[in-house]
Amino acid sequence: MYRGLFNSLKQPLLLSHLQENELYQGKFDHKSFTLSSNLLFKIKLTPFIDLPCGLGISLELLGERIVKCSIERGFLGQNIEKNLENLSPKEALSAIAKLNFAHPYPYKLAAILAIEELYGITPKKKEQIARTVNLEIARIQHHIIALKNIFSYNQIVLLLDEKKYLENLNEHIDYMKDIRETFLSDKYLKKLLSKVAHVSQHLAASYGLTGLFLRANRVKYDQRSKNQNCLCYPKEYKIPLSEGGDLWGRTLLRIDETINSFRIIKQLQHEYETSEHFNPCLEAIPQKTWAKGLIEGPEGDLMVSLFYVNNKISWRIKTPSYFIAQALPHLLHNRYITEVSLILNNIGLIVEEIDK
Amino acid sequence: MFNSVSDLIQNRLGKLIILDHFSLDEEVFLLVENKYLATALFFLKNDPDTRLNLLDQIVAVFGNFLPWPKITAKKEDLYLLYQLKSLRLPYSLTAAIKVTKDEPIMSIKHLYLGAQYFEEDFAQDFSLVFDESL
Q1: Which positions in chain A have a beta carbon within 8 angstroms of at least one beta carbon in chain B?
Q2: pLDDT top residue among A217 and A169
Q3: Angle of helix B5-13 relative to helix B37-46, nearest 10 degrees?
């Protein structure tokens, strides 16, 4: 759709090779460049035009390259954090699912951990195991949806029923290893994804990006490697890492993390009985004024902070997409308009997390 | 290490910057003078002994929920908590400032790029003014 739109409006650029290099490296202010100023188109992509997520993106183009990008948010206006203040902890757990209707479990788990810390509740070993397995299942589902956008549907089968993740784990691991080998040997994919949406370690930290963005720069930052009393990860947890900081590195990391998640489920499979339940003691008074539940979500740190002030619990939720959306102008800068869909589909952006 | 971060800042930058401090579990809390917020955060981000270059989150909370040793906080006081983490060193730190609607707050977007949305939301929700020129 986009290629057809711009071919009809495309005009030849009267630029020398040196001027073009300077323009794209940002050393030259394009607005003052008189030859190309009339070729600068402002294209507004509203939330409902063939984009994978409901986000407003405003682009300024020079030919087919994106020169400037700005994000428009606030279309949803859910006010989740404010609404949670008026709910009891149990009601809040179902309300927090609005952050991601498809995979709400990581958000619920972060909220449960925060509530347990606030009220001084210690989970049992069975609950810890069940939570770990369920979190890894949610991670696998999230990564497979992102990988499905790169590989054809015949290559990746989306398992919708979470009970299937507990059966034939060796076959799932071997299947993902085959996918990994296919991905590594595919030169076309390497050419398509390398140096696309590159984020360095320092830029990721400045933007507040965690998860894949840091680990794709070989930074050993993973909440699963820290001793958490509420979850049951292996003590010597090996963090999957990749390098490059680009889309290729992050996609490889998704495959590795999916294999890792299946291995963790395989280790805990025999002790996993049923899904855990959460019954907080509603009459108890919170034992702390500040508690937080921090987990390693599929796209980065997922944290729920609770502040008990004036007999009221205030909720503050840290979500990865809140930071990814701020980095989106950087990710799309100097890319082709045809790459927008590829980049958006593979950064795990969830719009409900931005307008919380 | 945790008990000396405040001393580290005061020895390197001066005694007017940190108004109060305490440690809780594995976190350090500093109450910073408003006009020295950018100075303190620049130091915390770039000094090799701190290297708090990861912006965790910025939280706006009312009330006296933090046990500051020297200063008595009131229920109607609004605090901004800048939660920072280090990628290399195993600790985190919260720099807090007390804010009012009338007093402009120093913007830290130039230090931590991920602070932009937080400042926009606080400006909308609490009618705070963030000034980049301070």
Answers
A1: 73, 201-203, 205-210, 214, 219, 221, 289-290, 301, 303, 305, 307-310, 314, 316, 318, 322-323, 325-327, 354
A2: A217
A3: 110
Burial class (CB in 10 A: 0-12, 13-18, 19+), B78: middle
Q: What is the pLDDT of residues A50-62, one digit of tens each?
A: 454 566 777 787 8
Q: Identify the residue among A117, A287, A290, A319 best suited for mutation to test binding to B, counting B beta carbons within 10 A and taking the highest.
A: A290
Q: Which residue of B has its CA nearest to A316?
A: B59
What does pTM read for this prediction? 0.85
Q: What is the ipTM of this complex?
A: 0.90
B11 interfacial to chain A (CB closer than 8 Å) = no
Radius of gyration of chain B (CA): 14
Contact B114 A326 (CB under 8 A): yes
Q: What is the pLDDT of residues A103-135, one digit of tens each?
A: 889 999 999 999 988 888 888 888 888 899 989
The tokens for A250 are 């992050």
pLDDT average, residue stretch B116-129: 91
What does each C-alpha distance from A323 to A54, A319, A348, B55 come to in angstroms?
16, 8, 12, 10
